[in-house]
Amino acid sequence: MGYNSSCLVRLVVLAMIISCNLAPTTAISCTEAIEYLMPCQTFLFGWSGITAPCCQGAQSLAIASLSDRKSVCQCLKQAALSLNVNLDNAKQLPALCKISLPFEIRPDIDCNA
What we know:
Layout (H helix, E strand, L loop, with lengths): L1 H20 L8 H7 L4 H4 L7 H13 L4 H15 L3 H10 L17
């Protein structure tokens, strides 16, 4: 009986460890969101065309922000307005990088919707 209870305790501990490792990750920070788009800065300011590194960063951000789109939306909206991003280029970015978004990029977007 001692062997079975010892085995059971090990299984319970193992299950607890696995469940801890499967816990949801923390939300993406505003700084991290902006870092993903750093390769896009020349495009977003209207200084050059779209680049592969820009699209890679934007695609990675789209994946990383799935669980926290509201916060990322608020962050990028504020950054775009304060940095005078070329809004036409920002609107084109998802299509040019083949990213499907459930919303349109625009300066008056409601991030709470």
